[in-house]
Task: inverse folding
């Protein structure tokens, strides 16, 4: 599994159809924004966020914490890949979505 916030964000963006959150209005990049508010430049690498491009889903924030991993994963997400309701029954899976993720450190547990 990816270890940096940016790598995790790219992984989950692909899995969920989300996009990286753009910098605030008036800024060309996150580094420009971070500099404008007086934070150290390396703060940019500690965070990454995703948003639903349709505006319906929750924002996801990936944050690097100073302490190392002490136990099992702090979060576990199961993603059930199904075709949109408008295209057919729930049993109509989209194997191409699974195929995109498996090489990126995820694994397919089962197909129906």
Result:
């Amino acid at each position: 599994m990816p270890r940096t916030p940016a790598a995790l964000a790219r992984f989950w963006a692909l899995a969920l159809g989300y996009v990286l959150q753009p910098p605030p209005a008036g800024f060309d990049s996150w580094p420009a924004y971070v500099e404008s508010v007086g934070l150290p430049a390396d703060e940019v690498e500690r965070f990454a966020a995703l948003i639903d491009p349709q505006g319906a889903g929750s924002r996801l924030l990936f944050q690097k914490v100073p302490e190392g991993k002490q136990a099992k994963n702090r979060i576990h997400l199961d993603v059930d890949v199904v075709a949109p309701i408008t295209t057919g029954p729930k049993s109509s899976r989209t194997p191409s979505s699974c195929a995109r993720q498996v090489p990126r450190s995820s694994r397919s547990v089962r197909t129906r």
Remarks:
- Residues 5-66+73-104 form one domain.
- The longest strand covers residues 47-51.
